[in-house]
Design brief:
A: about 775 residues, Aldehyde Oxidoreductase, domain 3, Aldehyde Oxidoreductase, domain 4, 3 domains, 7-stranded mixed beta sheet, B: alpha+beta, 7 helices, binds FE2/S2 (inorganic) cluster
Chain lengths: ~775, ~160
């Protein structure tokens, strides 16, 4: 029955229902709901990177008129974290980074709160600060977390030691034997990247109240359930006592995938009994940004003369900053990003999350993947140069295809990357070469990338309303990507035979919707989409069953279309869905359906991965990027002449929206590749605190990306869809770097490619990277307790 | 200090420190939250409003200098059910993402098209040099602007 949902009823360029209000200034983001009728909070932050707190004296601040409450570590002693609970809400005895919150103040106005913050006296004893991963790994380095062994472990099994917060390993096969083969060329490289700041236009902000013994937090987040759980954990409250609601979010890009300021607002709301708003100023938003982490790698490969990679060893260092956070989870991803793309013989990977006395890092669109893809693709080009093989031929020969095994031994299905490369080759061959031939150095490169959908638990409920419309209740949040206003209603409407406009989509309210991992990792369309699909299919069955009786036709002879149940092949026959609902109410009551979804789990080879949160990737996504650049040999300025993307999308549910995501993601990647860079000064503070020094791509910096959506690759996503919003940024850094390396003939080893860095390279003044703190002996880099 | 100015056609009296940014008066006192406070330094353009017809960043305009001036914010540009051609083009081309930059984009481009009703692609991009968008990558915004046929409707507001 119900030869369900013909794809054609789901796939469309549905426009956004939120566009009109967003364009007319009527949309209220959390930040727009902050008003005079509530208290205003600020955080007191440390101005040193490492110190012992001797005393916090709030008495003067508390005595100020209009100050309503001050909270410190004593009010929220709990620790939270990912993998390891190492992170307090406020510094307790130790300050571990410049800008770390020490106290928070709620006052009648923001001005009073700021004045009171200046009146809080914090007496400290300075301690030496460890500002780089090289320093942190020194055997004499001070411990950033002297109590690291006493922390609660939220996940077992990873090596940890001192300033190494977490390690994830892959060991498959005998790399020693591979590197000892007489016929191989060994290529050895070091690469490095800096931090990238998300700069969502709406900063992190929260409005909290305490009602009927429960916290209510309205906030700008991607993860309502994480906010609920972390708030409960640090405040020592039952999670059921926290309600989180989320209006439209003004950009996230992964920054809002962690809970940060929300519990502070909640704490102050309980202490004052009043509604409290807390919103980062732009400067705070920069200085406390959970950036894409700076990272370093040493990678070496053993390659045969005909281009087979028989051995690969790599050690990646990821800077967590002062607390483990996302980097602990992301250490897992190295196996699938740096260890991805290509068939490997023996492989050993070590991904180390390292503590430093710097602001904590976090998750940023295709987190971990962006720099590991840069490392991998530049290394691949170096391999090609060393063995004298054409980079395109090398890639076509080595990319993972049907039945090949990945780094952790998972078996990949379908030939996806190779046909995508061939498509890109055909497009590029047909396009005009854009060499300006004006004295600038011209280069072109094609790279491949492997990413995944971060699946995991989602829940959905659909209520079918008396008028034939449907209300979809999930924990989804509209962060700008459009999934809540496009793919989700399209999926539900297609299954129920109604128009997407008749699917009401409720935004996250943890009191109304089931648990969810959050909006990010390209998972909304897939995880929430699958749960929604299941819920819709249950309702569809009920509709068909009732209609079958009413129409005296077996369900297999019925079709749902245009808000009606029709006898198949007889348009206009049958009845409206509203009539079926009415009948259902007479029989048993209103109709509703629930659905759920979680990661199905893909097998990997037992025993080859340690410290991993996932051993295999459920839904791989692939992409091929190509660009042409012109490099000015006098200024080092890189001009991007063309940019092309062939992206694996499974099935494109809303092709126009996917193209928008690709244009936007590539642009963020161009910023990362060419000029976006957060640096840390000698005091441990970020040097870029605003738009003047942190340069975002402007309209005149970008170009139209030529896009091909590659359909048909296997996916367990709803109707074969994959997440499309994360991956567009994945190999922009890699592609630009490879093109600039080819243009200049220099081995690009660092991003971003700012004019001074490129000039230094062209003039031959750039020193080759060779990290003293990453041993060329792979085993020597493993954590020892 | 008391300042009298016209906001979206309505005469209003504002009592504030003359150094207060127009943006804060709009958002906090008038509760017109369409103009967004993003950088507060004149770089991003999300706070753009029209002052006597000229698109300016309201974060950099102290209220003390605006006595007697006429301000139009995104809320006063067009009724939301009858968007102006710039807004309509953005709806039709599905260019909006998080939306935070768009009120400012609309103000800048509406004023721009009044003086240059048939711009080239490069001119549109140049006009956007003071309006940053973190989400969209701009090109579709430019496509939408170039699709606008009836400029008179923009100036006829
Ligand atoms: S907030 Fe005024 S220009 Fe950015
Ligand atoms: S749409 Fe998000 S900043 Fe422009």
């Amino acid at each position: 029955m119900n030869a369900v949902t013909d794809l054609a009823s789901v796939v469309m360029d549905l426009p956004r229902r939120d566009a009109q209000d967003k364009l007319t200034g009527r949309t209220r983001y959390t930040i727009d709901n902050i008003g005079a009728d509530m208290l205003h909070a600020v955080q007191v932050r440390s101005d040193v990177a490492s110190a012992r707190i001797l005393e916090i004296d709030c008495s003067k601040a508390l005595a100020m008129k209009g100050v309503r409450a001050i909270v410190t570590h004593a009010d929220a002693p709990g620790l939270h974290g990912i993998g390891v609970a190492d992170h307090p809400l406020f510094a307790s005895d130790l300050i571990r980074y410049h800008g770390e919150p020490i106290a928070a103040i709620a006052a009648d106005t923001l001005e009073i709160a700021h004045a009171a913050a200046r009146a809080v006296l914090v007496r400290t004893e300075l301690l030496p600060a460890v500002l780089t991963m090289a320093e942190a790994l020194d055997e004499h380095a001070p411990l950033i977390h002297p109590d690291w062994q006493r922390y609660e472990l939220l996940k077992e099994g990873a090596p940890r030691a001192g300033n190494v917060a977490w390690e994830a390993h892959v060991t498959r096969g005998d790399t020693d034997a591979a590197f000892a083969r007489p016929d191989v060329t060994v290529v050895d490289d070091c690469f490095r990247v800096g931090r990238q700041s998300h700069v969502p236009f709406e900063p992190r902000c929260a409005i909290a109240s305490y009602e009927d013994g429960r916290f209510h937090i309205q906030c700008s987040t991607q993860v309502p359930w994480t906010v609920r759980n972390v708030t409960a954990k640090v405040l020592g409250a039952a999670a059921s006592r926290v309600r989180v609601t989320v209006p439209a979010v003004g950009g996230g890009f992964g920054l809002k995938f962690d809970c940060t300021i929300e519990p502070v607002a909640a704490l102050l709301a309980r202490k004052t009994g009043k509604t409290v708003s807390l919103c980062n100023s732009r400067e705070e938003e920069f200085l406390s940004c959970l950036c894409r982490e700076n990272a370093e790698v040493r990678i070496r490969s053993a390659v045969t003369p005909d281009g087979e990679i028989v051995g690969r060893e790599a050690t990646v260092l990821m800077d967590c900053g002062a607390y483990g956070g996302e980097q602990i989870f992301l250490s897992t991803m190295t196996a699938h990003t740096l260890g991805g793309n290509y068939r490997l013989g023996a492989v050993k990977l070590n991904s180390r999350a390292v503590y430093t006395n710097t602001p904590p890092n976090g998750a940023f669109r295709a987190c971990n993947g962006v720099y590991n893809t840069f490392f991998l693709e530049r290394h691949t080009d170096n391999i090609c140069a060393a063995i004298g093989m054409d980079p395109m031929e090398f890639r076509k020969q080595n990319v993972l295809g049907d039945g090949d095994i990945g780094a952790t031994g998972q078996v990949f299905q379908g030939d996806v990357l190779r046909p995508m490369l061939e498509r890109m080759e055909a497009i590029s061959a047909g396009a005009e070469r854009r060499d300006p031939a004006d004295g600038r150095l011209y280069g072109r490169a094609t790279t491949v990338g492997t990413w995944f959908v971060f699946v995991g638990p989602s829940a959905a409920t659909i209520n079918l309303n008396a008028d034939g419309s449907a209300t979809l209740v999930t924990s989804g949040v509209e962060i700008g990507s459009g999934t809540m206003v496009q793919s989700l209603p399209q999926i539900v409407a297609g299954i129920l035979g109604i128009h997407p406009a008749d699917v009401i989509v409720k935004t996250a309210d943890t009191d109304a919707s089931g648990r969810d991992l959050g909006v990010g990792g390209g998972r909304t369309t897939v995880s929430i989409g699958s749960a929604s699909k299941m819920a819709a299919e249950k309702i569809r069955e009920q509709i068909l069953e009732i209609a079958s009786e009413m129409l005296q036709t077996p369900p297999s002879g019925l079709a749902l279309r245009g808000g009606r149940v029709e006898i198949a092949g007889r348009p206009g026959s049958g009845m409206t869905i509203a009539a079926v609902v009415q009948r259902a109410e007479e029989l048993f009551g209103p109709m509703s359906g629930t659905g759920n979804f979680t990661a199905p789990g893909v097998p990997s080879l037992p025993g080859c991965a340690a410290g991993h949160f996932i051993d295999a990737i459920d839904i791989p996504i692939f992409t091929v990027h190509d660009c042409e650049v012109a490099v000015d040999p006098d200024t080092g300025h890189v001009d991007v002449l063309s940019y092309r993307v062939v992206q694996d999308v499974g099935v494109a549910i809303n092709p126009r929206a996917i193209r928008s995501q690709i244009q936007g993601g590539v642009t963020q990647g161009l910023g990362y590749a060419l000029h976006e860079n957060i640096t840390i000064d000698e005091h441990g503070s970020m040097e870029q605190s605003g738009f003047e020094h942190y340069l975002l791509p402007l309209a005149q910096d970008v170009l139209p990306v030529e896009i091909v959506l590659h359909e048909g690759a296997p996916s367990i996503g709803p109707l074969g869809a994959k997440g499309a919003g994360e991956i567009p940024i994945l190999n922009v850094g890699a592609t630009i770097a490879c093109a600039v390396a080819r243009a200049t003939g220099r081995p690009v080893a660092e991003l971003p490619l700012t004019p001074p860095r490129v000039l230094e390279m062209i003039q031959g003044h750039a020193k080759a990277l060779d990290f003293a703190h990453i041993s060329p002996v792979w085993h020597a880099n493993l954590a020892r307790r | 200090m008391t300042i009298e100015l016209t906001i979206n056609g309505e005469v209003r009296t504002v009592t504030a420190d003359p150094r207060t940014a127009l943006l804060d008066v709009l958002r906090d006192s008038c509760r017109l939250t369409g103009a967004k406070a993003v950088c507060r330094e004149g770089f991003c353009g999300a706070c753009t409003v029209l002052v006597d017809g000229e698109a300016v960043p309201s974060c950099l305009r102290p209220i003390g200098m605006l006595d007697g001036r006429s301000i139009v914010t995104i809320e006063g540009l067009a009724h939301f059910e009858t968007p102006n051609p710039v807004q309509q083009a953005f709806i039709d081309h599905d260019v909006v993402q998080c939306g935070m930059c768009f009120p400012g984009m609309v103000m800048t481009l509406t004023a721009f098209l009044e003086t240059n009703p048939a711009p080239s692609r490069g001119e549109v991009k140049a006009a956007l040099s003071g309006n940053i968008c973190r989400c969209t990558g701009y090109e579709r915004i430019v496509d939408a602007v170039l699709s606008i046929q009836d400029m008179r409707k923009v100036s006829g507001r």
